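Entry 14. Ran structure prediction on the chain below.
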Amino acid sequence: MPVQATRRPGILHSPFFWKLSGAFGAVVMLTGVLVGWLVELRLERSLLLDLERKLATDCRILAPRATDDLLAGDDERLAREFNGMGTAGVRLTLIAADGEVLADTHEDPARMDDHSSRPEVLAALGTGQGAARRRSHTVGEEMLFVALRLDGPLGVLGFVRASLPIDEVHQAVAAARRSVLTGTTVGVLVALALGLGLARRLTRPIAALTEVAADLTAGHYESRARIESKDELGELGAALNQLGAEITRRIAALSQEDAQLKAMLASMIEGVVAIDEDDRIAFINSAARELVDAGPEEARGRSLWELVPVRELEGLITRARASGGHVEDELDLFRGARERILQVHASPFQGGGAGGVVLVLHDISELRRLERVRRDFVANVSHELKTPLTSIQGFVETLLSGAIHDQDNNVRFLQRIEVNVRRLTSLVSDLLSLAKIESGQLVVERGPVDWRDVLEGVLRLREPALTKKGLTLEVTGRERAVLVRGDREAMTQVLDNLLDNAIQYTVAPGRVVVRFWGERGRGFVSVSDTGIGIPPADLDRIFERFYRVDKARSRAVGGTGLGLSIVKNLVLRMEGDVRVESVEGRGSTFTVELPAA
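Output, structure tokens:
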């Protein structure tokens, strides 16, 4: 034995040994079966051909006499003579041109049906002679039929047919089959015995090397093959030992690199996804799992399209593979009612003989939202300034063109100019306040403030508006102080804006409810109304600058579209929170939460 492993496996437990032995035996058996099948096929074909020739000869011998009898037209003599012609078990049948059976050596012609559609008769009608192997309708046995056409001066007189059961053919084929099977079985047993000895001699050293290779695969890199010869298997054993040493060194280096790479990818805020050539996920970091809403166990090994069914992403990956370089695009990914805008970079890679694509995902949803807010702000502020300025310009031009001397209208025009100037002043004032808040220039002094005191000051300003619109004001929670840490002026501006908003969007006979309470170290104030309410689609945007649910109504009541944005920013500066609940057509509730003093 040329090579021996440190742990020699039993040869009878070697899969390769049994596969080689089984393959050798299978080849011998298959060869025997194939030879037997060919012999049986050729034997059956030869016997049937000999039988067909014999029946054709009988038909040709019988044909002249049958032709004379048919031309004579004496049916009784024809049947009497025909019945004495059958020999050696051959069945003879005389068939008229129209398919009627005139005579038969084994059956009564009167009980036999029309034979014009029999395959052998149809073949004889076309070519002069026909043969068919089938089960007889009359006797119920499988037989070989040969028919010969009988021609007269005026055309086809009829057909003479000879038939014989083919049981003898089957018996001869069965005997040949038994002989072939016996010979094949003996040959397979002898060949298998020889094959087992040869396979044992070949597979023993290979099994030893296989055991070492299995150890290396399982991670037992200390396993080595024992070299006892210098032939090819000995060289293979030496190469396997060298491979084990090299694997040990490289595994240590790769493990260190892999740990470093995973640590870097896991700490990235960008999502990283690697897919193989079948678009299945080979690697995904936690940031990418969060972006595509995938759990830690369900993503790896799954198809990318199960997690991200976006047609544009498929096109991006296709372009990356086609170009062989870096491509990028922006994709919209929807998860329920939530939209994410992702900037996706795709780069193909080759590794281990297979190609894949690495995807780097950047969530730019907030960036795009801010860009949209900026665009909306520019458009809205331009529109808000242009509307009163256009109105002022129109009234001034009217006055300058002579309407200033119109005692009936000049004062009305000046009043309209005053209204628009006040609107501009309010708008600019709100813009300056909002700019100071967002830039951090507004100083917010945080100290103990009672929400009830803030309400008293705001009500002095808003009670006339409540009375004028015929609205009812309810205040609950006044009996106990609600002290919070905040800035009195900022809190006044917050509550004033919320009350003003409730008054503007509530029609008589409506109700405005202010409620105070404290819990879990927080102080709360809520302002509820029975107004027009806010559609669910607009709830997330009402705190944006100039965002209005009903723009025409908002301008009609004099709103600038900045009040709720100022409220949001002031509350955040005081380390609080503001939220809204609303049912369209039934009213809204704004709740402000600040830390308790």
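Residues 1-267 form a domain with the Beta-Lactamase fold (CATH 3.30.450.20). Will compare against last week's run tomorrow.
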